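ingest -> validate -> predict -> emit
validate: passed (alphabet ok, no gaps, 424 aa)
predict: started
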Amino acid sequence: MIYTLRDYQQESSDAAASFFQTKNDRNGLLVLPTGAGKSLVIADIAFRLGAPLLVLQPSREILSQNYAKLRSYGVEDCSIYSASLNSKKISRITFATIGSIMAHIDDFDHFKYIIVDEAHCVNASQGQYKQFFDKVKRKILGLTATPYRLTSALQYLDREGKQHFRPKDDEGSQKFDERIASRELTMETRCVLKFLTRTRPRVFHDVVYQVDISTLLSRGYLANVDYFDLSVVDQSKLRRNSTGMDFDDKSLFSEFKQTNFGDYLLSIVQRLLHPKDGKPRRGILVFTKYLEECEALVKRLPSCSLVSGSTPKKERDEILENFKLGCIDVLVNVGVLTTGFDYPELDTVVMARPTMSLALYYQIIGRGIRPHSSKKSLWFVDLCGNIKRFGKVEDLHLAEPNPGEYIITGCAEGATKQLTQVYF
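emit:
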């Protein structure tokens, strides 16, 4: 079967082909929103490249989807190399998980082209991806909807909250320490979203093609999102953990207890099960921070199931299938369904956890942003202040104010602001 690509999908594939033909040692990124059809783009790129291509996938679920899409093109010389899928075959086009190939790394040295799906998973400083890239030394093309990583850094702040930097000379550095000792300056670990091309070290250098969410929404390629900010968590009472990149469990537990968060979550889900218009939701997917909240909902709701990292594969697959069939009204999980869960009919997502990660926020909304004829829009219900922090995903925009200096901007609390390369 030959597919007719949408204009941006064809442009993505063309940009990828041009990238691989360019003779330099710079790696590139395709930035495509969730629901843009990345598996179709990967299939088209693989179809048109003649030399051996290795496609690295972050999970067996996403690997299976992309492999099946390529096979639907009528391409036979492709295979799966993944221990979790019980298949270790190498073909001209090989879909693999990074963990499976590391023990046999020399067997993959002949691939001319490398594509990395979900490229934001790549740690440029350490890990299996870095080991493999250092070994093979090939041009690499990454695909992602979220081209940034959350990192932390120590900041020095004065009494007005203004940031100061340590001087490089010895005398200046000594005076800087004196200001810290006198408490004129305080030290605080804060987080920053770093664009993948602006990390040091880095794997990816250039954005070779991108399309914004707003563009796909305006063309009807994604579902509209109705946002409901029903937050009860007082953000001012939440402290950061030692990394500065997430909330401290003790302060979060305390705030959840203060607000009777479990009861509030239950009441919200019950209201969603019986909306005022009388039309039942196609499915309610709930994301929580802790397993205890999932278990409490399952006990108190008649048609509710949970999946977590400890749910056996067979049981998990059965639960997901029953949810898609409508046999389960509410599915709760602790972060395991942020990627790789493809259910276009899903029309209700409840985010019952705060986060400092724009990628996690985006991915959670992305579970329901795929369009389907059975739904008018996605209902996104936020109970923990995330909409105020990041704004609407359709307002996210990739910009390049200076050559090579990519940033993501958004609109939160009525104001446009830069979300990457800034501390918060």
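The two ends are 48 Å apart (CA to CA).
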